[in-house]
Specification:
- It contains six helices and no strands.
- By secondary structure, it is mostly helical.
- The protein has a domain of about 100 residues.
- The N and C termini lie far apart (about 75 Å).
């Protein structure tokens, strides 16, 4: 009986070593030996990762804005406000590092809004708190990041 031996690529067997190998080949301008297919996949994943980071932080921002605006629990205000400020700062830093992410703002806002709304409703509606179905304020990036909540 013969068994097929499947040899894993460096990409599959040791990701860190694969990245070091790719960098060394690129620096040496040894482009013919670069693992192009996996390199393309990784670069595409970086872009998706940056979008996920913004979406996650925006969701957390909106959750805390919803709680701060619609839930009358003064003992919690400080924590919510601190989280709001922290998320705004982190989103601004991400956008300064990658300004092209701004073109996805509307899409990411809508996805983040839906996730934030589901989460706060699950946690707070059973306690009698109500939340609007739509964001009642300006969605513009400058309003969200500068802390201006207006309609």
């Amino acid at each position: 009986m013969t068994q097929a031996v499947v040899k894993k690529s460096l990409y599959e067997s040791d990701y860190l070593l694969w990245t070091e190998d790719i960098v060394a080949k690129l620096k040496a301008r040894n482009f013919d030996r670069v693992d192009i297919e996996n390199l393309i996949e990784e670069i595409e994943a970086l872009g998706r990762s940056e979008k996920r980071e913004i979406k996650s932080r925006l969701k957390t921002l909106l959750e805390n804005l919803l709680k701060r605006i619609y839930i009358d629990m003064p003992d919690c205000f400080n924590g919510w406000e601190n989280t709001i400020e922290e998320q705004r700062e982190e989103i601004m830093e991400e956008l300064m590092d990658s300004p092209s992410l701004k073109r996805f703002w509307d899409e990411l806002f809508e996805l983040s809004w839906q996730g934030a709304l589901r989460k706060v409703r699950k946690e707070y509606q059973p306690k009698g708190f109500q939340f609007p179905d739509t964001w009642q304020f300006n969605r513009d990036i400058k309003y969200q990041l500068l802390g201006i909540v207006s309609s």
